[in-house]
Design brief:
The protein is an all-alpha fold and 164 residues long. The chain has helices at 3-12, 20-40, 42-45, 47-52, 58-78, 82-101, 118-124, 126-141, 148-162.
Length: 164
């Protein structure tokens, strides 16, 4: 068996239950919609927000982030390469928490000037934390029964079994 086959099988295989579609729907839809909104509302959610948060080269990083959110959100929704799509979104959420939410703890969050402390941090980071946990879950268990990953993985197994 080639190592290439093993990589593809591990990437797409899942023994997770069908209910994983609920997590995929939530996580994928939020990323897809937020990615689109970065382009529809660039001042509030795209380049302008990145600039206000102090992210360098906001004209480059905001659209890049939007493209990744749209692409990975769509892949997660479809259940295609779900584990792979979860990885950049985990990095995205860790970055969002560190750059935009963590400063709230010390009262110097550039996006949240009137908020400070633990409770405000928890309140403002609730969606980021949910997205992070959802992506970690999908990375660990895969896309679940109702996914393109499962359909393609089963097809690959069928072809391999018939060729023996």
């Amino acid at each position: 068996m080639s190592t290439n086959y093993f990589r593809h099988t591990r990437l797409m295989s899942t023994s997770a239950p069908a209910a994983v579609i609920l997590i995929r729907f939530y996580v994928g839809a939020i990323f897809l919609f937020e990615g689109i909104l970065k382009f529809l509302r660039p001042d509030a959610l795209g380049t302008g927000r990145f600039d206000k948060a102090g992210i360098p080269a906001p004209g480059f990083f905001a659209p890049l982030d939007g493209v990744f959110e749209i692409a990975c959100g769509a892949l997660i929704l479809a259940g295609l390469l779900t584990r792979l799509a979860a990885i950049p979104m985990i990095i995205n959420m860790v970055g969002a928490l560190l750059i935009t939410k963590l400063p709230i703890l010390w009262g110097n969050g550039p996006l949240f000037t009137d908020e400070s402390g633990w409770w405000d941090f928890l309140h403002e980071s609730r969606t980021d934390l949910a997205q992070l946990c959802g992506c970690l879950f999908l990375l660990l268990v895969g896309a679940g029964t109702y996914s393109l990953d499962t359909r393609f993985d089963r097809g690959r197994v069928s072809v391999r079994t018939r060729s023996r």
